[in-house]
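Schema walkthrough. Field components (list of strings):
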Amino acid sequence: MMNHTSANLGDLVVDHVAIAVADLDATIADYTNRLGAKVAHREIIADQGVEEVLIAAGGPFIQLLHPLSPDSPVGKFLAKRGPGLHHIGYRVNDVAAAILQFKAAGARLIDEVPRRGSRNTKIAFVHPASMGGVLVELVELPE
Ligand code: CMX
Ligand code: CO
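Field assembly_structure (string):
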């Protein structure tokens, strides 16, 4: 059966590529004016200390992330590294099952229990130390 999510983590599908930005509106303008991109979604995720803007990009979204405060994870990232690539989100059918699979494989999880992401998704982060220096987000779309 064809599915837009990956079965058993088998068919890898990128949901979004996330970029940490210092100036959200200026960056949106760069994408819309220079690339002709359209904003698909905008949401404040207060408990994660971020505002996200999803840019439509023909398949996976480009997720612009702006910190709500300097002591949030993205705020600390910006202070340490400056704006740039932050993480890649991959779709999975069942994020709780995916967490168990990553744990069984010896990966370091940031989230041992799924939390709520934007768009009513269920998400979990895998530590960059376990994925070649890249922060990975597992994304389960709502029904
Ligand atoms: N990619 C790669 N490395 C990263 C990173 C990232 N996005 N963020 C931090 N790091 C690195 C740091 O540079 C640091 O490296 P060194 O030890 O070599 O200096 C190390 O990871 C530890 O970083 P830290 O700033 O001390 O912060 P923490 O360990 O507290 O947290 C991380 C790091 C990845 C666990 C944290 O940023 C996190 O929990 N992120 C997930 C939450 C998040 O970003 N939510 C917003 C996204 C919302 C959404 O996508 O919907
Ligand atoms: Co994300």
